[in-house]
Specification:
Helix 6 packs antiparallel against helix 7 and helix 7 runs antiparallel to helix 8. The protein is about 75% helix and about 0% strand. The protein has eleven helices and no strands. It is mainly alpha-helical. The chain has a domain of about 160 residues. The chain is globular and about 55 Å long.
Amino acid sequence: MAGEVKPEPWRKPSFWLKLAGGLLGLAGIVFVAVRLVEYQDELRQHELPASLWVVLALLSIVYATSNGLLAIGWANLLRSRKVSVETDRAISIYATSQLGKYIPGNIFQFAGRHALGLAAGFPNGALAVAAVLELVFLAVGGLALSLTAGQHLLPDMPGFWFVAAAAVLTAVIAIAIGRFAGRNAAAAFIGYFAFLILSGICFAAAFVSLTGEMPSAAGLAYLAGAYVLAWLLGLVTPGAPAGLGIRESVLTVLLAGMAPASLIILAVLAS
C-alpha cells in the first residue's frame, strides 16, 4: 500500500534473535582465542617440524568441515517434525550457533541455534524437540562408538570384538530409530554417528603424527573410541565449554603410558 511506513528493523523480534545468535557466536570465537593463549606454554614444550604443523592444520580443517554433518543432521531432525528447511540455511544457522559451545555453560550453542531458528521462521516446538533429540542421538552414538575403548578394561580380549560390538549396536540403534521415529530421524542419527567417527579418526591421526608410532588397527580403534568417550563426557558435563579440560583429563588417563600429557593435549587441539 502506497505511503505505508515500514517498521524499523530493530523493532522486529527477528532482529534481536539474529543479534543474540550472532553475539553468542562471537563470544565463542573470543573464548577459543583465550584458551589457545592459555595452552601456549604446553605447545612450546615441543619443537615440531613445519610439515607436522601442516598435517595438524589439515586435520583441523577436516574436523571443522565434518561439522557440516551435524548441521545436516539437525536439518533432518527438523524435517522429522514436518518442518521444511533448506540444507544451506540449516548449515548457516548451525555454523554460527556452534561457536557458542566454547562459552562456559555448555548450553549457548543450543540457545543461539534456537534464537536463529526462530528468526528463520522455524516452529518453537520443533526446535526444542530437535535440540533434545540431537543430544540424545549424540550421546547414544557416542556410547556405541566408545565400546572400542573397552580394550582399556579388557586388554586380553581381541580388539576386533569391540569394533564389531560397536558396529552391531550402531546398526540396531539406527534401524530402531528409523522404525519408530521415521527415515529423517534415522538419517540424522547416521549423520551424527559419521561425525563422531570422523572426530575419532582425526584425533587418532593427530596422535600418531605427533608420537611417530603407528599402532595396530585395534590400537587405532582404541584411540578413536577413547577420544569419543572423552568428548562425550565433556558434552554432558555442565559448564564445560565444548568439553575443554574434560577431554584432556580423560584422555591423559586412558592414554597413560602411550604419550606425554602435553602431546595428548596438542592432539586434542588439532582435532
